[in-house]
Amino acid sequence: MTFGFGRSTLRRSLLLGACAAALSGCVTTESPIDSAPVIAPVTEPNNELRQLPLPAAKTVVAVYDIEDLTGQFKERENVQSLSRAVTQGGAAILIKALQDAGERRWFTVLERKELDNLLRERQILTEMRRIYNNEAQIDPRALPPLLHAGIIVEGGIIGYDTNIATGGVGARFLGIGGDAKYIHDVVTVTLRAVSTKTGEVLTSVTTRKAVASYALQGGAFRYVKLDELFEAEAGVTYNEPKQIAVQSAIERAVLGLIVEGAELGVWRFADPAAGVSYIKSYREHKYGADLTVAAQTPPRPMTLAPAETEQLVPKRPAPVQVTQRRLSPATVPSGARPAVRNAAQPAGQSGVRQVPGVGAVPVERQPAPEAPRQLPPAPTPDEPSLGGIPQPAGSSKVAVLTEGQG
């Protein structure tokens, strides 16, 4: 009985193990339609941004956030989900686009999106060095000051409009035909460069990108014989990712921001001739036949040299000066007063005593107590009074002279 129970348990265990192995094999095996992850390829707007002429100097800029100002959610059939219609990672896309400009030769981008994390990490380093190294002032070589930007690049996704254009075409002949349908949405992005010196908006750019979706479908439906029917159908649908559309719009906005900033003198091209040619082609693409004389000579911003910044250079901490103070015995607590030993005084220093750990301390002299004053003795009977006239010997009376008596 026990042996039969053991064999059944063993069979069950082997069966479960085989099922688990089969399932694990199905999980780890990739499907033929699965694709391996790849680095995002360079698109046409990104390639144009990378091919920009070189700048005269690299500009330090800061990026805080690119907000989704559309307020729209994804819509499905007969229901609306709480997922946003456009990406919420606009700041990450903008930082990447600024770094790609001129192959990382146009801008030095500072982290401001997650500034709290950066400051918290620096605070940890400061606190650890203070606790374990007893550093009241951190060495700048261990923690240099943060860079600051002369220009802030900010903006937002200000519009996402759906079903801007819809349409299709199709045809059938003798039960064989096909059709095509398409839908266009539009996403709108705006960027601006703001001077940190004065708060002036130096330049702003608005770009739009169409989001295309289409479907192709074909089929056949006909009788081959009286009792035989032939039917076939095929189709494909493509929806452009909205994140790629937003990325393309932001990259085009960064390119426009650079060209218009160079036109206004915010920054300069290293090759003036190449810069003039690039600005001219940009104007023709932007204005077309509507280019005016006023558009060719725009007034410059009021802020002078907004891209120039003076970074903070830390000074070395001044050496701590230790001053030694001589204390008198009266100011030293009785419990902490060191024992005084009688030592021979150096010549010429009779009023100084040596205190261990302190040095020579002048001795405070106490004033000598005054002797009691001696009163004069009492006068004798035969002693004349103070201020009186002495009398002749043997006379006991005092002659009193009055006025008019001789």
From TrEMBL:
Region: Disordered, residue numbers: 317-406
The signal peptide annotation in the UniProt record is 1-29
Q: Which UniProt keywords apply?
A: Cell membrane, Lipoprotein, Membrane, Palmitate, Signal
* Any one cellular-component term (Gene Ontology): outer membrane-bounded periplasmic space
The record's Pfam families line, in alphabetical order, gives:
CsgG
Say yes or no: keyword Cell membrane present: yes
Protein origin, superkingdom: Bacteria
Q: What is this protein called?
A: Curli production assembly protein CsgG
Its source organism is Tianweitania sediminis
Organism lineage reads as: Bacteria, Pseudomonadati, Pseudomonadota, Alphaproteobacteria, Hyphomicrobiales
